[in-house]
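[step 3/7] inverse_fold.run input=structure_tokens len=293
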């Protein structure tokens, strides 16, 4: 089983008609990653705190429909976090967040994860907003120490980071506990570090998503591989990076022997391309990628 920890929120996505209208869609990087893994047929559990309000019920219903295990989900009466993306002409999104007093930031460290867990994925708002951020950080450190494959997607949201220098320092402190660091070009530029330095700090691989230019991985062994993006008509890019997370975890968790990185990246590129053809975060199903569940 793969455990994905982090926030579940509602994206209020702009629609063409009527002017100024917003359509509520399930979202949050970790939520999208868990949903994508479920649709790919992986054994996956979501680890979060989710509101008992109507939005929270809808979020859990979406995960349940994808076959995601909800036994690690904590519930609370606090409201659901809201995110309002604004879309650029190329389909990329910037976000404003409404997080004051919301359920997901009150996440508490679970005493243990279920037997048979092979991998843990964390990232996005969950590693920024306290007090939950410290609980997720403790989860990362604990599970890395006991040998789990760990994937970190910082998925930087500058509007949420009050002290960029402190966040950058904290990010470096996570790297010794990270197996795979996945980030976008925009994330890498904001963090201001170098891939070689990040690899030296602990990860066995750094995967960089580069939009229409595809994906690249650098490994601790000094290897570099790339995969081209699939040409598609882009509705928006919401959830594309989260789909990459899911594709990487689907191929890496539980694998033995050397990683076939060109094949892994190609699979991730195909999955992300399908997500980009749909409005909102709608990752593909196993059958769309030629997989059997």
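[step 3/7] decode complete -> sequence:
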């Amino acid at each position: 089983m793969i455990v994905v920890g982090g926030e579940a929120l509602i994206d209020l996505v702009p629609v063409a008609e009527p002017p100024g209208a917003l359509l509520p869609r399930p979202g949050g990087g970790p939520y999208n990653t868990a949903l994508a893994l479920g649709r790919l047929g992986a054994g996956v559990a979501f680890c979060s705190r989710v509101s008992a309000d109507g939005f929270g019920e809808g979020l859990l219903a979406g995960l349940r429909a994808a076959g995601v295990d909800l036994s690690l989900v904590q519930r609370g009466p606090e409201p659901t976090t809201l995110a309002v993306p604004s879309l650029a002409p190329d389909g990329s999104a910037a976000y404003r967040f409404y997080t004051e007093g919301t359920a997901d930031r009150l996440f508490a460290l679970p005493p243990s994860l279920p037997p048979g867990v092979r991998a843990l994925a964390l990232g996005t708002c969950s590693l920024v907003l306290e007090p939950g951020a410290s609980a997720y950080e403790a989860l990362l450190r604990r599970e890395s120490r006991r040998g789990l494959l760990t994937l970190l997607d910082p998925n930087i949201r500058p509007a949420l980071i009050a002290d960029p220098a402190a966040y950058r320092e904290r990010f470096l402190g996570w790297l010794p506990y990270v197996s795979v660091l996945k980030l976008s070009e925009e994330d890498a530029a904001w963090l201001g570090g170098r891939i070689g330095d990040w690899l030296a700090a602990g990860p066995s691989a750094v995967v960089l998503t580069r939009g229409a230019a595809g994906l690249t991985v650098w490994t601790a062994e000094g290897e570099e591989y790339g995969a081209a993006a699939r040409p598609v008509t882009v509705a928006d890019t919401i959830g594309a990076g989260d789909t990459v997370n899911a594709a990487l975890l689907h191929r890496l968790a539980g694998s033995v022997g050397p990683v076939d990185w060109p094949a892994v990246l190609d699979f991730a590129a195909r999955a992300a391309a399908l997500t980009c053809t749909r409005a909102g975060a709608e990752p593909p199903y196993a059958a769309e990628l030629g997989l059997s569940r």
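[step 4/7] annotate
The chain has eight helices and 13 strands.
The helical segments are 29-40, 54-65, 132-145, 164-174, 185-191, 195-201, 240-252, 261-276.
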